[in-house]
Structure formats: C-alpha cells, structure tokens
Design brief:
single chain, 234 residues, alpha+beta, 4 helices
C-alpha cells in the first residue's frame, strides 16, 4: 500500500467542522496521483505516450469523518487488472489505525489519441503490482437511474472545475451534486458512475430522485447525455 500523512485543514471541512465529502474524495484521488508520480507513470509521462487512466466508478463507505486538525493517513493500492480496467482500493485512517473511509474504484486505461479504451499491458501491471482487495459489498459499476426525477436549475461548467485532462475533475462532480444530496452527516455510502466527460462551457442539468434511504442525483447535459450518476445511501 502506498500512503501519506495529512492533517485535516479548515479549508477541507464543512459547516460541521468535519472533513467534507468532496475533500475526502480529493484526498483519495491525490493519493493515487502521488503514487503514480513516484512510480514514474504520472501526468507528464502518460501524456508523452498518449495514455491516461479515466475514473469510471466509485464505491465509498463512510464510517466516520475526521475533524479539523485531526491527523489522518490516506492509503491506496491496485487490487487487480482485467482487460482495459484497473481496480483500486483506498482507505482514510485515524491515528489508531481505524478505517474512517473505505473505497473501491474502477478505472479505464485510455488511448487519448484514439479516444478508445486499451488493454492494460503487463508492464503497467508490474509497475503498480497487485494487493488483495478490501472486503466490500459487491454492487457493480452501473447505477440504476429512476424513471421519475425532478430537474433543477441548470448551471455552466466553470474553469475552476477543469483538470489537466481538459474536463471536469472527478471530485468536482461530487461537489456539484452535494447541493441536492442529503446532509453529509447522514451519508454512509456513496456510489458514483462516470459516463461522459463535461468540459468548460458545457451546461449541466441536475435531476434528483429521493427515497427514504437513498438519494440519486444525475448530472446531465442539455442534450440529455449523462455525465455522472451519484447514489447516496443513509
């Protein structure tokens, strides 16, 4: 497992003084980026060969959100590869070694020049290695979109949402959707499925469906294309 230490900053907390949902996702995303950079397969080396890892799905379990100034350890490891997919686990732990946040993620190895997925080669597998996956509920990548949904006011993608790949950063979709998700203190499970990449200037139309224990938020374009589907469980 690759890991790094941090301390929860004020800018990473929500109104309750605890680590915000999007900040937790940023931590995990940064952890995998740090590992790739240290292994020599980070952003610039991948650009040179015209390849990139695109996040396809999150499955996140929230046991406790750490508080302001609390010291935490963020860890990640590759848990398997199959065809064009890479599977990666994440943990955020407290100083006692207890898991506060656990996550499984699915990534797609893309040929940026052709815009198509590509089989992961043996060299890439060897660079990351493989470790046993976390024991988590098997739910799959796809999230069912309810038939009846309520649409809310559309908003444009801003420059602040864009990352080095030229589209909305994965964690920023979650931040966008938090407006319609339940209070983060109630969320115990979060699933996210990424379908299409939104870019600067695109307009996002949020659609929401709420049930007793589940809230589904769909972020789609004005033409109906789905960018991201989020499902929060209480």
């Amino acid at each position: 497992m690759y890991s790094f230490m941090s301390k929860v900053r004020y800018s990473e907390t929500g109104e309750d003084g605890l680590l915000s949902l999007s900040s937790a996702v940023h931590y995990m995303q940064d952890c995998s980026t740090f590992q790739s950079e240290e292994l020599g397969v980070g952003v610039e080396p991948m650009k040179k060969i015209g390849r990139a890892w695109f996040l396809s799905a999150w499955q996140i379990e929230i046991r406790r959100r750490p508080k302001l100034m609390e010291e935490i350890a963020i860890g990640t490891w590759a848990s398997g590869f199959k065809a064009m997919y890479g599977y990666r686990n994440f943990v955020i732990r407290d100083q006692a070694g207890e898991d506060l946040v656990r996550a499984a993620s699915t990534w797609v190895y893309m040929n940026v020049e052709t815009g198509r997925p590509e089989r992961v080669n043996a060299q890439t597998v060897a660079v990351y290695g493989e470790e046993p996956p976390l024991s988590m509920e098997q739910v799959g990548r796809k999230i069912r979109i309810p038939e009846e949904m309520t649409e809310f006011e559309a908003f444009p993608v801003r420059k602040v949402h864009i990352d080095t790949n030229g589209h909305v950063n994965n964690a920023n979709y979650i931040e966008m959707a938090e407006e319609w998700l339940p209070a983060v203190s109630h969320i115990k499970k979060l699933r996210v499925a990424y379908q299409h990449a939104a870019r600067y200037g695109d307009v996002i139309v949020p659609a929401v469906h709420r049930e007793a224990e589940v809230c589904t938020v769909v972020l789609k374009g004005t033409g109906g294309q789905v960018y991201t589907v989020l499902e929060a469980g209480m």
